[in-house]
Amino acid sequence: MTHYQNADELKSLLLGKRTDYTSEYAPQLLQGVPRSLNRDDLQLADNLPFFGEDVWYGYELSWLEPNGKPVVAVAEFRVPCTSTNLIESKSFKLYLNSYNQTRFASWQEVQASLIKDLSNTAEAAVKVSLYPVDDCPALAIANSAAVKIDDLELNVDNYQFNRDILSAAIAKDSKDSKDIVSEHLVSHLLKSNCLITNQPDWGSVYISYTGKQIDHKTLLAYIISFRMHNEFHEQCVERIFTDIIEFCQPQTLTVFARYTRRGGLDINPFRSSENISAPQSRTIRQ
Q: How does residue 2 score in pLDDT terms, banded at 50, 70 and 90?
């Protein structure tokens, strides 16, 4: 549990409260959460140690043409990690639902509306792309070359978050060695809980790095320690990134978590020491 869980900024959120759904366009439903809440906890100043974005996919976006005929699309949203706020997920779902019975003149008008409202909430420029459901690159299943670490033998008896596990991630002989490796690893055992509702969040975390070799069992134990941890998706990924940087000191690092879908949205936070964009793809779990 994080010490900012009872922060005043979280008390006004719709998350965890009984809510009436509206099907008429209502941008006021969107709510932002200051990124500073967990970044203060991680001792991150304005000069962030990473680049990145939060990539959302909306699978249930629909609106009406001027003649009343429904349209359905898949939407990709990219929120820069430098935005003042992250987009709170329940308010995001309610907001998208408000398009259902609203008439728009064109796909371009819908896109412009989404960009304006989301950018206002995030307090940064949000990118939005709309695709037909049968012609969407984001719906392609990614063929990953990542090495899965989940099959390693590991005794686990504690599921409380423990960053100090990573203190043993670099073996002594590796610390003393000049050998540098590049690895692309994945674990599908990432699970945390919503900061407000305590609902489980399931995901796969992809970790790519160049540096002293990180012990796979230690890294897996660290990932499993998130199992009862309460934080938003974006915050968990930034915690993983900063912990690996501190304890393992890689030359380069990218952490990309692909969370499973809930209410028509999946969230894919991407943080990297390199100024690159998140891949446009999904996993079979999404």
A: low
Classify 64 as helix, strand or coil: strand
Is residue 10's pLDDT more than 60?
Answer: no
Q: What are the φ/ψ torsions at residue 16 (nearest 5 degrees)?
A: 85, 5
User: Does one domain contain both 16 and 96?
Assistant: yes
* Share above pLDDT 70 across residues of the chain, in percent, rounded to a whole number: 93
36 within some domain? yes
**pLDDT the model gives residue 137:** 85
From the candidates 136, 194, 236, 248, give the one annotated as an active-site residue: 194
- Residues 185 and 220 grouped into a single domain: yes
Q: What 3-state DSSP class applies to 145?
A: coil
* Cα distances (angstroms) measured from residue 224 to each of 40, 94, 176, 186, 236: 24, 32, 28, 13, 12
Asked if residues 153 and 100 have their Cβ atoms less than 8 Å apart, the reply is: no
Domain range for 215 is: 147-272
- pLDDT at residue 15 above 70? no
Query: Looking at 201, 236, 243, 248, which residue is catalytic?
Result: 201
194 is catalytic: yes
Going by C-alpha positions, the residue among 210, 213, 205, 212 that lies closest to residue 234 is 205
Please state, in angstroms and rounded to a whole number, the distance separating the CA atoms of residues 88 and 122.
10
